[in-house]
Write a structure and sequence with these properties.
It is built from 19 helices and 14 strands. By secondary structure, the chain is α/β, with parallel strands linked by helices. A 6-stranded parallel β-sheet has the order 1-11-10-9-12-13, sandwiched between helices. Bound molecules: nicotinamide-adenine-dinucleotide, L-histidinol and zinc ion. The site of L-histidinol has 9 residues, from helix 8. It comes from Rosistilla carotiformis.
């Protein structure tokens, strides 16, 4: 039990039996009242929003001599690394993460990966193997296969899929260690048949100095791991340096600086999506267990920052969930991080009915959607915009975060309106193959010649007519 002191009597809270109260916004959005809170949260959680700590601002002041906005920080880091390569990269590893590295120590030595694996908890390794297998099964089943059709005599049309040659994976490591992210990115890439996979993780105890991260990489056969994170890692992989060969695509989640850097280098390389601070909308009614709903909300808020929003048409469920959140925070290990995260990025919203909940959710386009109400599947299929949907009481989001099979790297910041979660299909490129024989050409030639004529492109027309 955490020792929290009551400000009045200085006894611990557990002793005075008083639950932690939390200042999570509670909003009555019935009768069509505009839920301004959702727009406010969306703005705060966007890559241009305020998800950077005051400490972060102090840090930029220290590094750049001025408290630059995050976009300006990322702009400068990317430009410096494109121009100066390793020199700028190592300088940023030092100034932003306090890591004294050189070109030789930037890459984790093979012996260190082996050692991490050899000393890892055997149960942990078995767990990694079982989960990798779940991910492999799902990602193989959904992988695009070549499609060939022969719509007319003498015509063969193919859509083929080719694995990418070399990709880079961002594994976060600022506030928590994520071996699960290694699994959820590397395994889909391997299923797709990617030739080379480089993993980057910040030079921290949660990143590339974390034994579990290194052991997971080794278990999956990843040999290229770099001690770098943030915008500098993204820029190094995009532009390449003497030490870090450039990649063709950068995937994986990260904080604001990672997200902005991925946006900035897009076009030079491909990126997956913007996978920023975790978010969940839970929709629940009186059939849900408030303690379970509370646990689901806390589980995404504990990413810190992480957003957790409950929408319900039941006042009693909202009240009971609020009480359960306070109670569970009492014993939660990361309550000191989770509570401010919920207060800044959470909300409990009362609506009129399911239809209003559906509309609000579609407009917010959450990364995760968890539905715990009557006819949950029906409501789930009526909602268009969500990165991943979890249906019913026995499917907490944590199953998707860790073990089910679909990747936990999902679109955040409202990008679920048009972006999809990471999958094996992100690591293949499609191309078409077109083949006609003489009959096929003869049957289509008049149409091609006519359209070429209309466009005034007579060389195009000739390239067909000359063959007839
Ligand atoms: N969507 C997903 O799939 C998913 C999965 C796991 C984690 N996440 C999210 O990823 C994020 C991880 O963030 P994190 O901070 O733990 O790790 P991170 O590795 O993404 O970021 C840490 C890096 O940020 C850089 N940085 C920090 N402050 C900076 C500053 N002021 N100026 C310039 N650079 C700075 C540093 O270089 C540091 O190495 C969390 O928000 C978490 O919720 C998302
Ligand atoms: N919820 C995160 C994705 O938004 C993934 C994760 C990793 N570990 C725990 N959760
Ligand atoms: Zn999570």
């Amino acid at each position: 039990m955490k020792k929290l002191h009551c400000p009045l009597c200085l006894q611990t809270r557990s002793a005075v039996n008083q639950p932690i109260s939390i200042n999570i916004p509670r909003v009555d959005a019935r009768n069509g009242a505009a839920p301004a809170i959702l727009d406010q949260l969306r703005a705060k959680l966007s890559p241009a929003g305020d998800v950077v700590s005051p400490k972060g601002r102090e840090l930029t002041l220290k590094v750049f001599g001025e408290a630059l906005a995050p976009a300006a920080v990322v702009d400068r880091i990317c430009n410096d690394i494109q121009r100066d390569g390793d020199t700028a990269l190592l300088r940023y590893c030092q100034s932003l993460d306090g890591a004294d590295l050189d070109a030789a120590s930037l890459r984790v030595p093979a012996a260190e990966l082996q050692q991490a694996h050899a000393t890892a908890d055997p149960e942990f390794l078995q767990c990694i193997r079982r989960i990798a297998e779940n991910i492999r099964t799902f990602q193989s089943a959904i992988l695009h296969q070549d499609v060939t059709i022969t719509p007319k005599p003498g015509v063969s049309l193919t859509q083929r899929y080719v694995p990418l040659r070399r990709i880079g994976v961002c594994v976060p490591g600022g506030a928590a260690a994520y071996p699960s992210t290694v699994l959820m990115t590397v395994v889909p890439a391997q299923v797709a048949g990617v030739g080379e996979i480089a993993v980057v993780a910040p030079p921290t105890k949660f990143g590339s100095y974390n034994n579990d991260i290194l052991a997971t990489c080794h278990e999956l056969g990843v040999t290229e791991v770099y001690r770098m994170g943030g915008a500098q890692a993204v820029a190094a992989m995009a532009f390449g340096t003497d030490t870090v060969p450039a990649v063709d695509k950068i995937v994986g989640p990260g904080n604001l600086f990672v997200a902005l850097a991925k946006k900035q280098v897009y076009g030079h390389v491909d990126i997956d999506s913007i996978a920023g601070p975790s978010e969940v909308i839970a929709i629940a009614d009186d059939t849900a267990n408030p303690a379970h709903v509370a646990a689901d909300l806390l589980s995404q808020a504990e990413h810190s920052p992480g957003s957790a929003i409950l929408i319900s048409w039941s006042q009693s469920l909202l009240d009971a969930t609020y009480a359960a959140i306070c109670e569970q925070l009492e014993t939660l290990e990361r309550s000191d991080l989770t509570r401010p995260s919920l207060e800044a990025y959470g909300a409990l919203i009362l609506v009129d009915n399911r239809e209003q909940a559906r509309r609000m959710t579609d407009a917010f386009a959450p990364e995760h959607l968890h539905i715990q109400c009557e006819s949950a599947r029906q409501l789930a299929t009526s909602i268009r915009n969500a990165g991943a949907t979890f249906i019913g009481n026995y499917t907490p989001v944590a199953l998707g975060d860790y073990a089910a099979g679909p990747s936990h790297v999902l679109p955040t910041s409202g990008t679920a309106r048009w972006a999809a979660g990471l999958s094996s299909n992100d690591f293949v490129r499609s191309g078409s193959m077109i083949e006609f024989d003489q009959t096929g050409l003869e049957n289509i030639a008049d149409d091609v010649q006519l359209l070429a004529e209309k466009e005034g492109l007579t060389a195009h027309r000739l390239s067909v007519s000359i063959r007839r």
